Amino acid sequence: MSVETLPSTPDGRPQARPNPMYDPAPGVDRPERPGPVPDPEVFCGWAGETVRDLDSTTEADPVGVLVNLLSAASAAIGPGPFLWINNDRHPALIWALTVGATAAGRKGAATNTVKRLLTAAVPDFIATNARSGLSSGEGLIEAVRDGDGDKDPGVTDKRLWVVESEYGVTMARGRREGSSLSGILRQAWNGEDLAVMNREALHATAPHIAVIGHISPRELRAKMQDAEMAGGTYNRFLPVFVHRNLLDADGKGAPDELINNLATAWKTVLTDARRVGEVQLAPDAARLWKQDIYPALSENETDDGPLAEFTARAAPYAKRAAMVYALLDHTDRIGEHHLRAAWALVRYARASAAHILGALADGTGDPDLDKLAAAVKAAGAAGLTGDEVYRLFKRRNAAYRSDLTARLCQLPGYVAAQVPGEGRHRTVYLFAPPG
User: Fold this and answer.
1) What does 261-272 look like in DSSP terms, one character per residue?
2) Domain annotation for the chain: domains and CATH numbers
3) Which of 93, 114, 314, 316 has an alpha carbon 20 to 30 Å from 298's alpha carbon atom?
């Protein structure tokens, strides 16, 4: 059988989906990336435009800047916007763990880029509501506590953006005997009132807390315990692999003019978003959710193990992230592009978790992609045809199947090839082990 490898096609099918923010370009020195690359769709709308504007001014990973921006913005927006998922009221809150090597991850650079921007846009929020030092559940409640009559006026602004640059220390504190930290964090993610049973007077009504944590892959793997995974603390976080994306010897940062121009727009965006109440899916997004995204996120709910535990809240996170994307675009309606961006972010979180937990030898973190890869391997030298791909994923639409095969071709050893057919060539998917 003669085959012709297809590196790409003019209409993008079945070529891979390269992300130009990670590709070398004239005058841009990008280091080799050891982990997954996010789909370009994650850089959607005003949030994505901001990341692109800042990209050349920092060595931080663009996706690291993005999740810091989404997390900080979700905290600054406050408790007004929400959406219903079944009978659960979900606030606009994004929690993320940026996971990267101590030196090459540039985790702090991503956070500091966002802090600089929001310090110019909403200085009072960053000065008062951006905190660090999670040590106990009681300490977190104290930071957003209710008043106690004349004794203590309490905290009137319950918004909080918690940045933990050493999240491994936080994990260790949460595992101490008698610690309430993990339980209180789970309540905070849900947007529930906070209290501890052994401190009757210590409570916080309607808190609005977002958390961003930094940790290295090695430390995360070393500190994880099955009991904590099963308890659901970690799956409140989007795990996001980050790596330095630019080698900038000068390192001058963003010009003040750029920061001030962006900050002016961000101040308006955040002010307008705080006035929003219930957020809903627009009709096109509702169709996408029902037909493609929710089935894809629900098919593997019976899986177990660390990877499944770490990504167990993928479905609610897809809607939460879509809500924040929409709010930053001055709308209370989640459009299809917002939902696609959120879905791409969740897929990247899954791929990050697989990479971080050392599962790449056994899977990619995307169940459908793993299913397709296994089928291609099983097909052997004959390859897997387009008709066979259709039968595997006939519940999905053509665009989804095309995107899936494109992502397959990004994996080492997988290629799309053309083979002679009756009257015309046809595409098959093959696997040849690298080397």
Assistant:
1) HHHHHHHHHHHH
2) 21-356 (3.40.50.300), 367-431 (1.10.10)
3) 93
